[in-house]
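ok so dumb question maybe but i'm new to this and my supervisor (M.) told me to 'just get the structure for Knotted 1-binding protein 36' and walked off. so i did the thing. is this what she meant?? sequence i used:
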Amino acid sequence: MDMEGESRKRMKHGIDENGQEDIDGAALVIVEKEETETNIVGSEEMELNVAHIFEKIEHFTQMVSELLESGKAMFKELSNELEERLISIHKEQMEKWQEEIKELRLLDASNEEASGILHNARYVLQNPHIDS
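this is what came out, is it supposed to look like this??
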């Protein structure tokens, strides 16, 4: 029962005794549980085969762990690049819109000035007795 509790604890935390992330914890727990439950001493050849399988499990688990870490690093880098690009796009768009606002205000000021001049001209044309 102690081994079972220890396996559950390791699976729950996701870290093995070497400090490595336990990617396939469920499979390791099953193998360890079967090994402790049977406790049958087999031939030397069988023990070598079992040891070889454990080596394969360790190698495969290490490979999956490395791939996972590599994938996480790649996604983090892509995420950072995406964030930087979106911020850059946002900044560029804000600058474009601010420039549009500036141009609209200049156009409005120019239109107001032209409107004022036209209004004065109309007034002068409608009142010929006023000398400029």
